[in-house]
């Protein structure tokens, strides 16, 4: 990817998605009144422009499952280099439409697990960056620490590839999941009505970001709330909407500071508010 693409792609994304969500958030179904250029807007723009670099960096997550596949003799380095690897075993004999359904379910369950892990102990400082936004909207979705992003991808990609699913099918669904993750952060009062317990909505995920005590450590799923229902972390009160967001801990308000803050908290000689946090589960 060229330097021009690194700059142009995020800019196009900002303009296109910004226009779409401006209409949705300000005309169709706004949940909480807030300015477009709200507090933290420019910080999130920086995260948006850093995102292409993170995509390249997170490709190293493929090294883990790829190495295991090579060591097990399932495929060869030559096949990988020629981009001809198409999966293996019984799951790969299934129709692609069935593989897609299974991949989405498996990846969402893995995502639920790693998300819940990041709300505990020494994992929390890295995830706290994402929760630090006091104005949750479509753009705040991109505020993610690289360590958080890295382990998210490892948790979701590794089991899918090791079970033998076709990676082409896997990667084809990534753009949809990315856009859906942005959508559920949107400043919208949509809860999907009768499907509120079937498919994640903006209200569902915004409760996850809420500072309300009853909503703490709830709604971890990225797509299907069934995982939260099964593991008793589902929270969707009727006729109530989340209004106050953010975290109690103080964090820097610029990208370099937020990048370093979790590491500083982990290596501090004495406990810090970030590492002392004991989430209720």
Describe this structure in words.
- The chain has 281 residues and is mainly alpha-helical.
- It has one domain.
- The chain is built from 14 helices and no strands.
- It is globular, with a radius of gyration of 19 Å.
- It starts with a helix and ends in a 5-residue tail after the last helix.
- The mean pLDDT is 87.
The averaged pLDDT comes out at 87
- In helices, the fraction of residues equals 40-55%
Per DSSP E runs of 2 or more residues, the count of β-strands stands at 0
Shape: globular
State Rg.
Answer: 19 Å
Number of domains: 1
Distance between the termini: 42 Å
How would you characterize the largest beta sheet?
none
Treating each run of at least 4 consecutive H or I residues as one helix, how many helices? 14
Run of helices and strands: HHHHHHHHHHHHHH
Backbone structural class? mainly alpha
Concise summary:
This protein has 281 residues and is mostly helical. The chain has helices at 3-28, 41-57, 63-71, 77-81, 89-92, 96-117, 124-131, 146-162, 167-172, 174-183, 202-209, 226-230, 255-267, 273-276.
Topology at a glance:
Layout lengths: L2 H26 L12 H17 L5 H9 L5 H5 L7 H4 L3 H22 L6 H8 L14 H17 L4 H6 L1 H10 L18 H8 L16 H5 L24 H13 L5 H4 L5
Helix pairs in contact: 1-2, 3-8, 6-8, 7-13
Task: Sum up the structure in keywords.
mainly alpha, 281 residues, 0% strand
């Amino acid at each position: 990817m060229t330097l021009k693409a690194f700059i142009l792609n995020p800019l196009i994304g900002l303009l296109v998605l910004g226009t779409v969500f401006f209409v949705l958030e300000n005309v169709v179904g706004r949940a909480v009144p807030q300015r477009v250029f709200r507090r933290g807007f420019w910080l999130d723009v920086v995260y948006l422009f850093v995102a292409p670099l993170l995509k390249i960096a997170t490709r190293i997550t493929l090294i883990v499952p790829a190495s295991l596949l090579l060591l097990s003799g399932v495929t060869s380095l030559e096949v990988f280099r020629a981009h001809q690897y198409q999966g293996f075993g019984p799951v790969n004999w299934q129709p692609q439409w069935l593989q897609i359904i299974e991949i989405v379910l498996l990846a969402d369950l893995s995502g639920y697990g790693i998300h819940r892990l990041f709300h505990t102990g020494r994992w929390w400082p890295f995830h706290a960056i994402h929760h630090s936004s006091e104005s949750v909207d479509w753009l705040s979705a991109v505020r993610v620490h690289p360590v958080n992003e890295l382990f998210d991808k490892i948790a979701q990609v590794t089991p899918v590839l090791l079970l033998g699913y076709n990676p082409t099918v896997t990667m084809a669904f990534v753009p949809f999941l990315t856009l859906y993750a942005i959508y559920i952060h949107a400043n919208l009062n949509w809860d999907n009505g009768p499907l509120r317990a079937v498919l994640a909505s903006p209200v569902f995920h915004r409760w996850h970001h809420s500072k309300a005590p009853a909503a703490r450590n709830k709604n971890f799923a990225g797509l299907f709330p069934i995982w939260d229902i099964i593991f008793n972390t589902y929270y969707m009160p009727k006729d109530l909407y989340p209004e106050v967001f953010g975290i109690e801990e103080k964090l820097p308000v610029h990208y370099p500071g937020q990048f370093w803050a979790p590491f500083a908290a982990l290596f501090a000689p004495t406990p810090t508010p970030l590492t002392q946090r004991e989430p209720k589960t």
